[in-house]
Fold this sequence. Notes:
4-stranded antiparallel beta sheet, 13 strands, alpha/beta, 341 residues, 7-stranded mixed beta sheet, homotetramer
Amino acid sequence: MLYFENDYSEGAHEKILKRLYETNMEKLPGYGMDRYSASAKEKIRKSCGALEADIYFLTGGTQTNKTVIAGILRPYEGVVAAVTGHVSVHEAGAIENSGHKVLGILEEQGKLSASAVRTYLETFYGDENHEHMVFPGMVYISHPTEYGTLYTKRELEELSAVCREYGIPLYMDGARLGYGLACPETDVTLRDVAALCDVFYIGGTKVGALSGEAVVFPRNNAPAHFLTMVKQNGALSAKGRLNGIQFDVLFTDGLYLEISRNAIETAEALREILREKGYRFYLENPTNQIFVVLENEQMERLRKEVVFSFWEKLDESHTVVRFATSWATRMEDVKALEKLL
Amino acid sequence: MLYFENDYSEGAHEKILKRLYETNMEKLPGYGMDRYSASAKEKIRKSCGALEADIYFLTGGTQTNKTVIAGILRPYEGVVAAVTGHVSVHEAGAIENSGHKVLGILEEQGKLSASAVRTYLETFYGDENHEHMVFPGMVYISHPTEYGTLYTKRELEELSAVCREYGIPLYMDGARLGYGLACPETDVTLRDVAALCDVFYIGGTKVGALSGEAVVFPRNNAPAHFLTMVKQNGALSAKGRLNGIQFDVLFTDGLYLEISRNAIETAEALREILREKGYRFYLENPTNQIFVVLENEQMERLRKEVVFSFWEKLDESHTVVRFATSWATRMEDVKALEKLL
Amino acid sequence: MLYFENDYSEGAHEKILKRLYETNMEKLPGYGMDRYSASAKEKIRKSCGALEADIYFLTGGTQTNKTVIAGILRPYEGVVAAVTGHVSVHEAGAIENSGHKVLGILEEQGKLSASAVRTYLETFYGDENHEHMVFPGMVYISHPTEYGTLYTKRELEELSAVCREYGIPLYMDGARLGYGLACPETDVTLRDVAALCDVFYIGGTKVGALSGEAVVFPRNNAPAHFLTMVKQNGALSAKGRLNGIQFDVLFTDGLYLEISRNAIETAEALREILREKGYRFYLENPTNQIFVVLENEQMERLRKEVVFSFWEKLDESHTVVRFATSWATRMEDVKALEKLL
Amino acid sequence: MLYFENDYSEGAHEKILKRLYETNMEKLPGYGMDRYSASAKEKIRKSCGALEADIYFLTGGTQTNKTVIAGILRPYEGVVAAVTGHVSVHEAGAIENSGHKVLGILEEQGKLSASAVRTYLETFYGDENHEHMVFPGMVYISHPTEYGTLYTKRELEELSAVCREYGIPLYMDGARLGYGLACPETDVTLRDVAALCDVFYIGGTKVGALSGEAVVFPRNNAPAHFLTMVKQNGALSAKGRLNGIQFDVLFTDGLYLEISRNAIETAEALREILREKGYRFYLENPTNQIFVVLENEQMERLRKEVVFSFWEKLDESHTVVRFATSWATRMEDVKALEKLL
């Protein structure tokens, strides 16, 4: 069986496991006060060019989104997000559970445009009844998006400019940030992200770690007592070393980007194969998720030998499916898939 | 430096790390749908004598308490707990953040008595204004308690009987459950816990795992769509294998109890030393936490060579401190401590 | 100055004020336990043909929607509503503040169709990832809608059928219910509403009362301890007599429908005038709200002598405005407006 | 039957009803934007000596407490209150429902002392684990308290000083504020309250209004967008005139204090009677609530002719009951009661 189901099918990069082994019996303080967490934060600060950054390690994407958003907003505020955003659809209402509305706006292939955000804000403040409505209190984007698409640096600058004009933070969900940064096409660096966003997280779970997301407030701008809110959201690990050590390894000698590149290269190879064989792409993107339209019978046939994701029904006889590569995908598996396509 | 600070100072039991290594590159489905999670659940069911049990793996104690309590209660209900209970004081208001009051009642050395619970319930329903008050919707106990004390089987039976009489679930926080079950003094088995509680969790983080708590609804009695509520609380791991593999190892060949016994034996040895040397115990308990009264100067002296926890100020010149042992404590460290005492 | 701004510009119907006066110094128990509340409930039960109905008096629409919705849903559920529904846009996020997502779906002139609801439900349950999404736990409709439109009996039957098929309650926001029931065009009676909905409220604030909404669970189907949840939502009046007396008057000798008819007749007269004068209606509806497209300069001119509501900008030179009549609108004011149009 | 059950048994002071009548058909804007609300606010500002005060009219005590507390606190904060405080016990968990813990501390006859608050704050910040605990974010007091007791000006100054030292607001629940201010014994004026508290409310429901509480932020210090939070809590009346007119009347020519005095005088007369007849007071207080210990048989006998409140069981044969007077109590009823005692 070949696996292209998602980017969290394997455990962790072997260097991470090795380091967990080596450090296993060291006695370390809990709750992220250990030296490995400190070292990881320092390395991340340097990579971000944000030496004053406040950094917190949490354990999963939904948890991180909920904690960050609820930690920043006031009760009368909601978060502006694409209607296709992870917080809008696939977090079981975690944001609303924290008391805040997700203010969904239309997107293009998963991306929010600065002009759509501006229009939303202008319309809101222009509405005579806006005091009876939920105030837009921050803007959420994902990069790569849920469709694997990427913002350009220019687009991020424009989004950032609108947010700053209105005095609301720009938050980037970087569950797959590595796969975005490692794309040859992108002109966005981690430093750009840190300069343009007010808070973002660097995803570990989907990029080589067993678990773990690093939340970065790049300008020493974490809300007061954010640690207590992390605890309140059930997101503070007693064995903080687990996240700390993993990020320390990922940010040593550029490992995070290096392993991300493998996902991009294998995805690119698979994309090339699909293109040659005349497959129809549901949409184009340069990262590790490939959305293809399959004829239903063909899909069923393929399913017997390959694991991939159902995305959505396109019409009676066609289905959109997703092939995902990851830090762990081997080129030989791409080649094996080629034979089946 | 000697470490007796807590029971989560090290990483994981070596068998766990070894198994993570061996299984690392297996491609497994996410969100706990993997074979190791299934195997772990089956082993836990057998250990509990609860073949119909619904089991979920979460990642930390506060997260678990919040998810379970909020998942069971209706909005008009709160949870009855000892005023010293973890949910009452040390979870940063996680329960209230989910909308529910912790109804604190007085305890004895961390334990709730059935008669105190009964009195609370009788008084509540006897109050003509009780419809203007928070209904007691479940009872929370910890075992061992925050003071390391244990319920007897008889005490659990009585608590269970009161809860059943009033139709409210009894929930046991088993963050350190192994250390309770491994005590020679206890007459409470895991089967008793499963028979007498309506939901409980088996703690992994403090008993040899990197992270992970196993929530058990012993009679197929999980609330509808509990998985969705786990997700909503940010407690559903994409790489569910991490928790699954760890519990699979812990529940193979009795490892969970075996490593718990080490904590009890080293604690007992240390207790004996303290007793011989005439130290005053703040309270007596048979598990892995030892609460001792130190004279302040002595405490400061000791602190230079031993890490332990400040518990509370007793009077101007004395302090209560805690020494904790764990699955990882070595007898040689106890002996080294003996020389310093 | 002429006033067609809304349907809550005046105080209360004079019979209500008179009754408040007459009963003012009677000593009555609080919290709705008084005889007038009991009498009002009995009259409403009869009007609804629902002799087993549970009835609660609350004080405003948003409060009522929040209390009912939060009182019914489980944490993993949200409420399906039109994207234009009051709960979706004009309640300052009250529903989300209670922890629940409003699942907005497209509407036609404010109305949800049974087929749109069915498609939503089918798509939801057909989605392989639906356990990571918010479950549709009830359906919210308003009648009349925010656009003054009405459901036919057939449409309500279809909606009710879908809801029952999926086992989720149908909730009707009847802030302006009287104005719907009093329309000559409608084939929907209060008995139909009670038979087809699982919970609804009869609006008082906009239909002749100083304040007050009557929540009806027509088949003795209020959630357990709903009174406590009313209290918890700050919606339980100490002087419950205020709501009780008002509804007792409104449901004596058909006053509620009688005064509603005045709004419909004056609206119909105004509509006729507008039609004759060639005004363009933004949409057609048979109730007390009239949505008209005005050329901007004309609007500004009119504003000097008439108070009406801005609804939305149509294009650069045109605006949609709303004229509302009510139980208190006098035909002579309609005639005065005629001269200005 | 004689009624001494509570202070909300009657409707409204006749001047209020009269004014509602006179203004009934005036067409006024909704949501508190009417001229009577403006006038009432101006009068309250003057009475408070707080010309910059932000004032909002809400509709009941629990609603007001919930809206104010949730509107001020950050998620990691709770409210310090007496364990006997209304927010602690008799609001059905409204505060917790908004996500915040009520941090109960011991009181003396319903009063919090500055020293108890200081100790709480010092202990909290002195605890090494306080970042895992709920931060004390404001202090709640009621004046008169639930036991009818009053703070002295000195006591309020001390409480205010502690709060300011720690940078947390002092909030006074004034559900019965009039009855406190009208006591001959008190040295606390409304100006003192405005000077020493950061937010408080002037109760209408229990002091002559049909409903209504006036929230005062005396130094233009309402939280941003408090109106939106009032709406979100279901506490914004469409017919804001109802509250506005009532408070406008209550604050014209000193009516609020004048009618409060009646409650105090009748209470004092009743107290004198009870004293002479040798009744035992459960506690002493100078306001409109009288707590007396009755022998159970005597209580049952009295119940046949007098309505009063059960307070609590004292022992097997004695019960604490409450007699309450109000703005509406007539001296002749006190005399009639005298004969029965």
